[in-house]
Amino acid sequence: MNDSRTRRRLDVIAEQAFPAYVVWELTLACDHACTHCGSRAGVARDGELSTDEALDVVRQLAALGTREVVLIGGEAYLHAGFLAIVRALRAAGIAPALTTGGRGITEELAAALVAAGLAYASVSVDGLEATHDRMRNLRGSWRAAMTALDRLRAAGLPTSSNINLNRLNHADLEALYEELRARGIGSWQVQITAPLGRAADRPDLLLQPWDLLAVVPRVAALKLRARADGIVLTPGNNLGYFGPEETQLRSITATDRDHWRGCQAGKFVMGIEAHGGIKGCPSLQPAYVGGTTRDRSIAETWNEAPALAFARNRTVDDLWGFCRTCAFAEHCMGGCSFTAHSIFGRPGNNPYCHYRARTLAKQGLRERLVPESSAPGAPFDHGTFSLVVEPLDAPDAVLPPERLVQIRRQ
């Protein structure tokens, strides 16, 4: 999710919760099988919404006042009603957008997207060519993504990009920015790969919490470069939190003084799954699905389902571990909910925090995530981790028990 893009749209919205920003998974069918995919996309879900059912969803979202809908997958363009849904969103006064791997973006489809009224398209690019193709599990994927950016721009569509940052690709960050800048993107979202779905099967892929000590300042420096180039770099919901660069990371312009304002899932953000499941954020786990579009109206689920209201009702008493004692607890509320849940099986304590990593580093310490249980193999599933506190200068390999300072378990 794009926190700063969402923030701009929500700054003018009253405090009454409503689904202003919706991310809609049209299908889990995909022409990639990415090694880090949280939804394990590839094959369509059983019972995905038909085009007629999807058009009724558009009608309900319009009635709820939705401002923007980002269509995702899998690959959204593999849904039979994709273009009809884009047109319906635009006709309903909702800005339709697309996040795509780009493999199927032909010149004809790019022109059709413009004609249908798509507001912008974000192409996922997860590193330079060799790294991206490895993560996407497909040789030629990087070239296809770059060609998609070129075709979309040539058709007159505003373009952006996004990256899932991890230990495999973070070294590519600065060079990748130059590649994307040359292709005329207007914005770039940088988020962290969370241990969801296929990424949960590859714990060595994940950043360790102490990696943020180097990564976050690099992202902040890139944001300044991007701003000078007229590009808006935005951190994802699971990157950052109250380090020295917090305002710089979260603010759109040089004069803004923005910061992380807590999880917006079920407040002003909603996710819709391909078979109609409704949850407060598209990346949240199945436990947060409050109902389906076939069970009852979206309005009823949004207003009445406890699974969607958790962030609306959260207090500092729901936090635990370091997050419960943090000076920023009331503002942060434990950071990104789906990321914390993917680590510990519940939200409220998030080790992917720059402030937290810096606080421990001042004490000569750092936290390590150690896999404890495996993910079962379903969309948006996760395992669990132990959190080990160890010396800051410890080797990257797991320390023997006699050198561990402390172990915190779920």
| Rg over alpha carbons | 20 Å
Number of helices: 16
> What is the 3D form?
globular
Strand content: 15-25%
Beta strand count: 13
Sheet with most strands = 10 strands, mixed
> Stretches where pLDDT falls below 50 for ≥5 residues?
1-14, 401-410
Helix-strand category:
alpha/beta
What share of residues is helical?
Answer: 25-40%
Helix/strand order: HEHEHEHEHHEHEHHEHEEEHHHHHHEEE
Spatial arrangement of strands, main beta sheet: 7-6-5-4-3-2-1-8-9-10
What is the residue-mean pLDDT, rounded to a whole number? Answer: 91
Describe it for me?
It contains 16 helices and 13 strands. The protein has helices at 3-10, 51-63, 82-91, 107-116, 129-136, 141-154, 173-182, 197-200, 212-228, 246-250, 298-304, 310-313, 322-325, 329-332, 337-344, 354-362, and strands at 21-25, 68-72, 95-100, 120-124, 159-165, 187-192, 232-235, 269-272, 277-279, 291-292, 365-373, 384-391, 406-408. Strand 8 (269-272) and strand 9 (277-279) form a beta hairpin. The chain is globular.
Topology:
Blueprint: H1 3-10, E1 21-25, H2 51-63, E2 68-72, H3 82-91, E3 95-100, H4 107-116, E4 120-124, H5 129-136, H6 141-154, E5 159-165, H7 173-182, E6 187-192, H8 197-200, H9 212-228, E7 232-235, H10 246-250, E8 269-272, E9 277-279, E10 291-292, H11 298-304, H12 310-313, H13 322-325, H14 329-332, H15 337-344, H16 354-362, E11 365-373, E12 384-391, E13 406-408
Parallel strand pairs: 1-2, 1-8, 2-3, 3-4, 4-5, 5-6, 6-7
Antiparallel strand pairs: 8-9, 9-10, 11-12, 12-13
